Amino acid sequence: MVMRRVIIIGAGFAGLAALRKLSSAKNNLQITVIDKKETFDFLPLLPDVIGRQIPVSCLSYPIPELCAKYGADYLAQGVIAVDTSRRAVTTTSGVHAYDYLIIASGTETNFYGQESVRRAAYALDCARDAAVIAQRIREADCDTYIISGAGYTGIEAASNIAVYFKKMKLTKEVIIIERALAILGPLPEKFRDYIQRNLRKLGVKILCDTSISGIEAGTVSLSSGQTIERAMVIWAAGVKTADFAQKLAGTGPQGRIPVDAYLRLSEQCFAAGDAAGFMVRERPLRMAVYFALAQGACAAHNVICSIRGRPLVKFRPFDPGYIIPLANNASCGLLFSRILVGGIIGSGLHYLLCIYRSVSLKNKLGIVKSLLMGPV
């Protein structure tokens, strides 16, 4: 039996879905997972570390243990480059050859080249980031807390910060800064209005058509000319793929790697999750956990099919919808493109899905306990 070397770059939702699927191929695969982080972090609940005070220990799981469970090797290394012609991955520690490659490296915070902002602002990319932000907020040593970016992450973070200060009976200003003319631009206007009203009920101020031009010693300068002193900034103004993925993407939308209907970049290289630029009606498929899980499994299935000489399967996205949870349970969303959900029902569905998708029983029980005993 010929042993095939399969490398998975990234151990997020897409990478772990690929790993689970590949493990079903049993003994003819040598699987290696490469990720510079040592933990899988449950990203959808990171804002809740602030408002609902979910312990980060409930949102993290050691990647080495997951790899051992599914019979894979683990390399805690950063990826520098991928050469699809040579079938090699260059990392911070060397060059690794592969027979098949699945790129599931996700995205990271995009500071758009603003080095002063990168040094002074806080990102929310992992559980450790959430813990640092939560600790800083609990110190309450700033007058104003600014969230740059009014996408899903920014909205959730702002609501959690506002709820936390309300619970602690502290008077602090929470401001969302958004470069666009409206928050949550791609969503229907009625959803945007609903969320905006509820944010304002929480005391969150929203400044659209505005951006941060600099941060210096706790003073934030805005494009409007206004300055805000004694401020903490959480940067959620956009994401980008890893540098090596952008080189593969070329001029592809959002720096995501262009793939065909089978999630292939090349004959023996696949991409899945947020790093993959799978096109739907000439637009990249939106970034979402459900799509990452489905693409990871599909890419792995097609690797197995390739090895066994079977026809590949096209990735056919099914969109179950979305829910935007606010920390005061004024959530809203759309299921299956037609069912409106809101309020505590929307929040309940969001947290049920998060519990279901969590990677271990211990983490699931920890999340349930935190939600039942939480501050809201």
List descriptors.
27 strands; globular; 6-stranded mixed beta sheet; 11 helices; 376 residues; 4-stranded parallel beta sheet; alpha/beta
Mean pLDDT: 94
Poorly predicted tracts of residues:
none
Strand portion: 25-35%
Head-to-tail CA distance between termini: 57 Å
How does the helix and strand content classify structurally? alpha/beta
Rg computed from alpha carbons, rounded to a whole number of angstroms: 21 Å
Major sheet: order of its strands?
5-2-1-9-21-20
Shape summary: globular
Describe the biggest sheet?
Answer: 6 strands, mixed
Count of DSSP strands:
27
Helix content range = 25-40%
Number of helices: 11
Report on this model:
The chain is of the alpha/beta class and 376 residues long. Helices cover 33% and strands 27% of the residues. The protein contains eleven helices and 27 strands. The strands form nine sheets. A six-stranded mixed beta sheet has the order 5-2-1-9-21-20. Strands 13-12-11-17 form a four-stranded parallel beta sheet. Strands 6-7-8 form a three-stranded antiparallel beta sheet.
Helices, strands, pairings?
Blueprint: E1 4-9, H1 13-23, E2 29-34, E3 39-41, H2 48-51, E4 60-62, H3 63-69, E5 73-75, E6 79-83, E7 88-91, E8 94-97, E9 100-103, E10 107-109, H4 115-120, H5 127-139, E11 144-148, H6 152-167, E12 173-177, H7 189-201, E13 204-207, E14 212-216, E15 219-222, E16 227-228, E17 231-235, E18 239-241, H8 243-249, E19 257-258, E20 264-266, E21 269-271, E22 276-277, E23 279-280, E24 283-284, H9 289-308, E25 321-324, E26 331-335, E27 339-342, H10 343-357, H11 361-372
Parallel strand pairs: 1-2, 1-9, 2-5, 9-21, 11-12, 11-17, 12-13, 19-22
Antiparallel strand pairs: 3-4, 6-7, 7-8, 10-18, 14-15, 15-16, 20-21, 23-24, 25-26, 26-27
Helix pairs in contact: 1-9
